[in-house]
Every structure is written in structure tokens, then in C-alpha cells.
Amino acid sequence: MLKKQVQCPTCHTTISVSGEPGEVIQVTCSTCGTAGKVTFPNQVIAKPTKAIEVMHLTKAYGGIAAVDDISFSVNKGEVFAFLGPNGAGKTTTVEMIESIRTPESGTIRILGRDIKNSFHEVKERIGILPQEFHSFERLTVRETLQYFSMLFKHRASIDSIISAMNLKADEKKVYKNLSGGLKQRVGVAIALVNDPDIIFLDEPTTGLDPKARREVWEVIEGLKQQGKTVFLTTHYMEEAEYLADHIAIIHKGKIIAEGTLDELIDAYGSENILLINNCKTDDAAEVMQAQGFEVAQHRNGDLEVKISYKDQVLEVLSHLRHECIEYDNISIRRSNLEEIFLKLTGAKLSEAAP
Ligand SMILES: Nc1ncnc2c1ncn2[C@@H]1O[C@H](COP(=O)(O)OP(=O)(O)OP(=O)(O)O)[C@@H](O)[C@H]1O
Ligand SMILES: [Mg+2]
User: Fold this and answer.
1) Which of these three, 249, 266, 283, is where a domain ends?
2) CA 94 to chain centre
3) Domain coverage including residue 29
4) Structural domain ending residue among the three candidates 213, 231, 266
5) Residue 37: pLDDT above 90?
6) Coil, strand, or helix at residue 212?
7) CATH number for the domain harbouring residue 318
8) Count of structural domains, the chain
9) CA dihedral defined by 275, 281, 285, 286, rounded to 10 degrees?
10) With bands split at pLDDT 50, 70 and 90, how would you rate the model's confidence at 45?
């Protein structure tokens, strides 16, 4: 029941009216007797802007929590990176969202629907590239896509996927003869056979060489341009930095930080870093430290000086000149996710153990 207050057009008395959405109510002013109609508009149900909502999700193996009461959401149309080291709980989480594993507790909504009750509908709208993806060795690329396409009611055109994934030259090759990078592209292509709204890619670039990794990145950028939502798991911070609109860092089953790259850097990053390449003076670090700078020295002779404010760069350079410290080059870089992870966990992302 909706409530509305209207004014009598004759005597301006305020009249309270109740009605259902879409109902037209006949009203008579109790003061002057003027009659009129009040319309209650049909309620517009706001479309959910969230592609995925995860609330208090938990899963343990043998009493040990692999995913420990995590909550987060993914907006429609964004590339969401779930970043964490080996064993952090990425695959367990993503496979619970995909209904492959059963949560111990928690709620998962995809496109506004609780997957407990409506996974058969939701399944038509998602595409999945599992972490350890393999396909039929003796099927060609085209046959592979045709096969997987048959599993869905709503299907994208195979030709359009082959062209979008740049697989035209290889469509007649059998899967087992493809390079690792191409196999992975076929894996992404399979995830698109039902023209999904949301695509889950579990470590799509692990083990690929830099060129093949770039090619997969281009594919992901293309998906975003088409308005798809991409849920990407990765342990490569540069992948998350390059691709993601929104990043959640998972460590030991818990989300330890979440936001855009800029938000994460603002919240947890340190200052900018001035990198001085190949310092020719052995005690350069001590000299700079004595001047009050926070300095880290690498074995190769590079120095990293933390910069807290813009003019500090000039101060560092002036000290280098004053102390006659020679070097090859300088550059400035922002804090990155590796530093943020180190700050939050005390371990390097690349080295963190589960
Ligand atoms: N089926 C299982 N049975 C028992 N333990 C499991 C199972 N699956 C995962 N685990 C454990 O749960 C934890 C999280 O594993 P998960 O595979 O989710 O991590 P991940 O972040 O995907 O790691 P990776 O980057 O290596 O893929 C790990 O300690 C792992 O050993
Ligand atoms: Mg995994």
C-alpha cells in the first residue's frame, strides 16, 4: 500500500490518500466537497546494478577455512580482479559462485538472483574458464566451440566468437596441436558460446609467455568494451593493475583490501619512489640515509628513495650532486599492488605461502 498527500485544487486543504501501484482513487475534499482522481504510478523496480553479490561466504576443508567469511560485490560491466597468492582461496570462491562447489555458509547472488534457487537460469548467463582448463584433444577449434555451444539454449554465433578471439587462422587445427596461448584463447572462446553477461576467468594467463599473456589481456579488454562483466582471478599484480576496474586482494581466505587501484594506493600505498639506476658510489645509501631520506638499496646498485612530497625529488637530486654520487638514470614510480600486499601481509605476493 502506497500513501500520498495531495492538495485540494479549490480550497488547498491537504488530503491523505492510500492506494496500490497503478490504482486510480476517487477523492472528495472533506472541506469543500470538490471531487477528483489521484493516480498511483506503477512502481519502477530498479534493475540491479550488481552483477555478483557475495555475503559472508565460508568454506573449510578438513576444518581449515579456505574461504573465511568473505563479502564483496562486482558491478555490472566491470573487470573485477580477485588477486591473491597460491592457496589464498580464489578458486574455491569462484567455483562456489559458479555453483561447482557448495559453500558451508553465505549467500551468493548473480544478477540479483540467489543462486541456491535459480542457478539453472543464471547458468545461461555466465561463462566459465576453469583454472585447469583442458578440451577434447582431437576436436578442431571450430568443432570444440560447436560442441560446447550445444550445451546452452541461448547461443552466440560461432563465427563471431572465432573472429573476436582472432582464431580464424587456427579454426581447423586440432586442440592438442595448439600452443599454450592459443589453448587458453580457445578456453576463453568456450566461455563465450552462450553470449554470457558475466565471464569467470580463473588465472587465464598463468604459465603463458609475455606475448600470449598480452593477447589474453586484449581479449579481456574487448569483453569489457562489449559491456560484459569479467571476474578474473590472478596472482599477477601487473595483470590486476593493467586490467581491473575493481580489485579485491584475498589472503588466507580473507579479503584484506578492496577498491579501485587508486583507492588501494591512497589507502595503503606508501609515497612515490624515486629509482636511481646503477649508483656508482658504494656508500650512496648511507649518505642519503644520513640526510634523512628513506632509502632501499638493491644488489645491482640501484637505489630506491621514498618521496613524500614533490619538491623532495629536487632535494634528493641536489644531495646526489652535492655528494658527487654518480648514476645512470632516474625514474619515478607510484606505489604498486606488490608494495600494498607487502605492507598488509608482511610477505611478497609472488612469494606468499598459503
Ligand atoms: N578440494 C579440496 N580439498 C582440500 N583442500 C582444498 C581443496 N581445494 C582447495 N583446498 C585448499 O584450500 C585452500 C585454497 O585453495 P584454492 O585452490 O581456492 O586457492 P587459490 O587461491 O585458487 O590458489 P592457486 O593460485 O594456487 O590456484 C588451499 O589451502 C588448498 O590447499
Ligand atoms: Mg586457483
Assistant:
1) 266
2) 12
3) 2-39
4) 266
5) no
6) helix
7) 3.30.70.120
8) 3
9) -160
10) low
What angle in degrees, to the nearest 10, is found between the helix axes of 180-190 and 210-225? 20
Q: Which atom of ligand 1 is nearest to the CA of 101?
A: 1
Ligand 1: lining residues by beta carbon, under 6 Å = 61, 66, 84, 86-92, 131, 235, 354
- All three cell numbers of 55, joined, read 555475503
Q: Is residue 341 part of a domain?
A: no
CB 81 within 8 A of CB 93: no
Grid cell locating 223: 569483453
On whether both 196 and 254 belong to a single domain, the answer is yes
How far apart are the CA of 123 and the centre of ligand 2, in A? 21
Does 79 share its domain with 223? yes
Given the CA of residue 88, which atom of ligand 1 is nearest to it? Answer: 21
Dig out the grid coordinates for 163 from the structure.
Answer: 573472429
Q: How far is CA 93 from the centre of its chain?
A: 13
pLDDT score for 88:
95
Chain mean pLDDT for the chain? 90
Please check whether residues 145 and 72 belong to one and the same domain: yes
Contacts 24+ apart (CB under 8 A), 207-213: 207/180, 208/180, 208/181, 208/184, 209/180, 209/181, 211/181, 212/179, 212/180, 212/181, 212/182, 212/184, 213/181, 213/239
Is 80 exceeded by the pLDDT of residue 75? Answer: yes
Whether residue 354 is contained in a domain is answered as no
Residue 279 carries which side chain, given as an amino acid letter?
C
Q: What is the CA(58)–ligand 1 centre distance, in A? A: 13
Which of 42, 36, 46 has its CA nearest to residue 21?
Answer: 42
348 domain residue, yes or no: no
* 8-state DSSP, 137: T
For a substitution probing ligand 1, which of 57, 59, 61 has the most ligand atoms within 8 Å of its CB? 61
